[in-house]
Each structure stands twice: as structure tokens, then as C-alpha cells.
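Entry 14: structure prediction run for Cyanophycinase. Input pasted below.
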Amino acid sequence: MNIRKLTLKILKNLTLFSLLILVISCQNSENKANTSKSQSIGPKNGALLIGGGGKNDGMTDEMWKVFFDLAGGKSAKLVVIPTAFDESSINYDPEFKILERQFKERGFDSIQFMHTRDTLIANSEEFVKPLKTATAVWLTGGRQWRTADAYLNTKTHNELINLLNRNGIIGGTSAGASIQGSYLARGGRDINGNYSIIGSPEIGLGFVTNTAFDQHHLYRNRQYDMFELLKNRPELLGVGIDEHTAILVQGNEFEVIGDKYVAIYDGTFWSPYFNEIDTLETGKNKFYFLKNGDKYNLKERRVQQNKFIVKKDISSNEQKEYVGNYLYEKSKVFYNNIVIENDTLKFQIVRRNIVRDPIPIYSYEKDLFFDTDAELWFHFKRDSLGQIIGFDKKTHKFIGSLNQRFNKTVNQ
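Run finished. Output C-alpha cells:
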């Protein structure tokens, strides 16, 4: 083979190799994008109160107290945006005296109103002045698309985000709830009486990313409609909030507040009777409920059973000390294994030819670990030479005279 042919062959191989690297790079980028889409991210600062609506705004006394306290109490500076109202409601009370009286009854002294249908006005410095010093904003019920049409991607929208950045709170029920998500789950019927959760416009204010909030959820029997939306937009997290119920979003977590339930559509199925979350095919087209006090991790898309127990960081060498196959109760077919996957210590059950998926465990203190929900505790035992010889698995952990379990600490 002469030098020219050899050079051409090398160049050809280099070109193929470059193309291969490019394809792999694109696939990795796509995978990262898909991973990003599978998460929902809340505001870095501030809080959101997202309510399901109902009579009298669908707010319980507890929900009002949470909103009032996070708004700053008696020093709160509240801005109310009633743009979701229809024209007849606004013409009936153009100065919003009825709304003002309702908020004064809830303890607010400083109340301003902002309303326009004109995006040019919504995008003006003069219009957004009240938001510059506000500590709280309330978005009324009505039709969420009216709010989106007026304020999406305007200076008003930017100032709402700025309010959150300075630790303010944005609240709303019904349409004022849906608008806070990234996708506007439709909340009404068309002129022919047909209902569809997929409507137009589709884009919300996006205070929580990759999420659709539906409201009046159980009261109006909309619990199965979310599947229609998720079939077309599988990256979304569906959250259905019933009347007189809300979620309080802080960071990437929320807590349920109120009298009824919140339905979660995240492609899994969870029940308080079980410690594991079903992510298999049996979780398809299923949803589950959370009640008052329950917490949910938006970013990880899972129930947050216990957020009060802090894990202790341990080195990779310390992790390796616990790895092993531990025979269970002298059985020859049942093992409790401790393995390492992706730099995380995990517990795994092996029984004959059945191998369970490993679950992460975290260090609480030396030789004591807990699972993600802090319901299972692993007490490792050592021999006289200090070598680990096994562990006990328990459903609770006593610390002093207190029992650490689930979301709270209770006296024993």
C-alpha cells in the first residue's frame, strides 16, 4: 500500500471515529435533557400556596394562617391580581372593594390591586410598581388563560419571580393555582359542553417547572382526566388538588394543607401501608393520594416520608467495610446483602433465585443506617476484633427516650 492510500484510509477511519463520538455525545446530551425533564423544580426562595378552590376561595383557617404568616403578618404588603375574573365580575366591583374587605378580615392592612388585559401595560414600569415592594401576591380564581394572556413573559411576570427571590409568597386557588405551574391544565368545558384537560394556551407562569396543577379535583370527578394530558406530555408531573386543600411549596418540596386530598400522577404508586414505591408497569395509569401533613419531593418525584433526620457523610472506604452477603437467621436461601451502587450504600434481599432491587441506606452514626424514609433502621454488629459480622433490621430507632419514625418525633 503506497503512502497516499494509507493516508486516505487513516483519514477515513478518523472521520468515522469522529462521527461516532458525535453520535455518542448527542445521545448523552439527549439523555441529560430527558433526565432534566423528569424532574420538577420549585422556586429557590420564597413559597407558593397552591389551592384547589371551592366556596369562599376554598381556603381553610389553617391555609389562611400559613399564607398570612409567610406574607409577613401585620407588616405584609399584599398585591391582589384578579385578572382571572370575567368582565361581569370586574364590572360589578371595579374598585375591588369586596375583595379588599375579605382580605382585611384575614388580617391584611396593606392591600393593592393590579389588573389589566393589555400586555403592553403589563410590561410597563408604572404598572409593576406595587410588586417592587410587595411581600405577597394573591392570584384569584376564574379562568387561568386570562392571567396567562395578560402577564406571561412581561415585566409583571419578572417581578413575580423577583418577589419569590426575596422570600415572598405567591398564593392562589382554582385558576390561581393552575397558573403557577408550567402547563395550564384546563379547568372547564367548551361551549359545546365537552371537557378536556388539554386546552389553549398551554403555558403557565412556571413557578414550578414540568408540572400541571389541576383543581376542584375530586369534587368535580376529574381524577382520571390527568391521564389524557400525561399521555401527550409524559414529562409532566400531575398534581390534582381537591377543594379546601392546598400544597405549600418551598424549594423542591411541598406539604399538603387542608381538609381533603391531593392526587399525585408521577408514574408510580405509593401507599402508607408499604415502605416501597411501585415503579413497575403496575404503576402505569395509577395515582395516589396525600393528605394534610404529607410531604412530597418535587425534584425526586417521590413521597418525602421523613425530612428531619440528617444523614452523615461517610467515605468510600468506610462504605466498603459494610459490604457483604449476610445469611438471614441461619437460612441457606435467604440473604440480606449490602452492596455499593453509584457510590451509594444499598440494602438488597436475595431469596433463592429472587433478587430484589437494592434500596439506598444512609449513615446516622457509626454502625447505624436508615433507609430513605427512615422507617427501616440497620444496626450493624461487630465481633471482639471489631469486624462486622451482621446486622439487625428494625422498623424504628430509639434515640434516648424518643422514637424517631416517619415525619415526627413522639414520646415513648
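Notes: The longest strand covers residues 208-215. Will compare against the previous run tomorrow.
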